[in-house]
Design brief:
By secondary structure, this protein is α/β, with parallel strands linked by helices. Helix content is 33%, strand content 23%. It is elongated and about 90 Å long. The protein starts with a helix and ends with a strand.
């Protein structure tokens, strides 16, 4: 279902967030979280974790601040300017103010020969370094001579910042949703995930909920590691399914990346929804991981989590470049990403296990279920009803029955509820 208003609203927020210079720490992260919090039904809880804090095998790095960065030739012509695009600076570059030869400069420049008009995304978070990124078409124009390189930046003791939003349900069992907020000025790779998660929060707040929902916005890798170092035991105890959202705003494809053994409730839900509603989807194994599923599904953590995408990270040409812009992320793409996540959550909420109470096929006519379905046009519904009863033997939940008989859970659930009302099914306790 395409919701034009929904897609346009999400696209407007992506547009607002795109110019912010984000990294794994710093003011850009705080500004981004503040704007997202404004758009949530209730404000999120924003946590600050001091530099140097241990998190499993890692430590929170120093906080990075970047104010100005550029390259000028001998005539004062500015060749590269951070003020023109956030990706022009290598992330976490240390301060420098120096004259260098072209040969020396080339050792600090990064470009993509096969994408000559793209500025690449390059970082050096955990080893002090500096550098600049530029379009290869501009790099090849550089002439012999001396160049002034200037970076006004700072690495200081500060904080890693993340956001958490929790919506209570009827039970303490949780559905966990995560996305990341650490990439500068890339629309699909960075902003589609947190923006879709924000609109999912808005939608959830209007729905009846069996489960409690925990949505987190973290810097990728180090943020999820820090979060797990604080809440691993709680999450392992409570989470029944989890979804990492990444690159979920283009309109080219749908895809999902499985958990390590592809056996969790999240795997079952994602595959069922994609097969039912988006049959051209692509599935990736955990061997093809690359986002925060690496942490959430790691040994000893093993959350029942998968990653949901439109076109998966690394699988579209604009990925990790300046070309990942507002043309790649579209209102229809964001709306479709929202549909995928909300469909998965609806299946989770409606999934039940039933036991048929009647031996043999029940007499549906006396209950008003069959006479009105006797025409040819109603045969598919009658077959779905009979098939549902046939496999409601207490060993299959609705997802399992859907997989067997080929009808979406969204179609089966109201039928199952009617059969419960008629005394032909009983819902079993989990």
């Amino acid at each position: 279902m395409k919701n034009c208003n929904l897609g346009n609203e999400m696209h407007d927020l992506v547009r607002r967030l795109l110019p912010i210079c984000r990294s794994i720490t710093g003011e850009g992260v705080r500004e981004t979280l503040g704007i997202l919090s404004e758009n949530l039904p209730t404000p999120m809880n924003i946590e600050e974790v001091p530099s140097g804090t241990a998190a499993f095998d890692w430590n929170v790095p120093k906080e990075w601040a970047i104010r100005e960065a550029w390259i000028e030739d001998e005539n004062g012509n500015r060749i590269v300017d951070f003020a023109q695009h956030n990706l022009h600076i290598v992330g976490y570059s240390v301060p420098v103010d120096s004259w260098v030869t072209l040969q020396e400069l080339q050792e600090r420049l990064y470009s993509l020969e096969d994408q000559p008009d793209a500025i690449p995304f390059v970082t050096s978070y955990y080893k002090e370094h500096w550098g600049f990124c530029l379009a290869h078409s501009e790099r090849v124009k550089l002439k012999e001579g001396n160049y002034r390189v200037f970076i006004d930046s700072e690495l200081k003791d500060g904080h890693l910042t993340y956001g958490e939003w929790i919506l209570p349900g009827e039970t303490e069992e949780e559905v966990f949703i995560s996305s990341y907020i650490c990439h500068p000025s890339m629309a699909n790779n960075e902003l589609s995930g947190p923006v879709v998660a924000t609109w999912i929060a808005k939608w959830l707040a209007t729905q009846p909920r069996r489960y409690t929902y925990r949505i987190v916005f973290v810097p990728e890798t180090i943020g999820s590691i820090v979060y797990l170092s604080r809440y691993r035991e709680l999450l392992r105890e409570r989470v029944v399914a989890g979804f990492n959202l990444s690159c979920i705003g283009d309109d080219r494809n749908y895809s999902y990346l499985a958990s390590r053994y592809e056996s969790t409730m999240a795997d079952r839900v994602a595959q069922n929804v994609l097969k039912s509603h988006h049959p051209g989807y692509k599935k990736y194994s955990f061997l093809e991981r690359g986002s925060d599923e690496r942490q959430y599904c790691s040994p000893g953590v093993d959350l029942p989590l998968v990653t949901l995408c439109r076109t998966r990270f690394g699988e579209y040409s604009e990925y990790h470049t300046s070309l990942d812009n507002l043309d790649v992320v579209t209102p229809d793409g964001l709306s479709g990403g929202f549909d995928l996540v909300s469909e998965c959550l609806e299946v989770l909420e409606k999934n039940r296990t039933y036991q048929a109470t009647c031996y043999g096929e029940p007499q549906l006519g006396k209950r008003g279920l069959y006479p009105s379905l006797s025409t040819k046009g109603h045969e598919p519904f009658a077959k779905m009803l009979i098939d549902l009863l046939a496999y409601a033997d207490g060993s299959n939940d609705l997802i399992g029955i859907s997989n067997i008989i080929g009808n979406p859970v969204s179609d089966l659930w109201p039928v199952a509820e009617r059969l419960v009302e008629e005394g032909l099914l009983e819902e079993l306790e989990k």
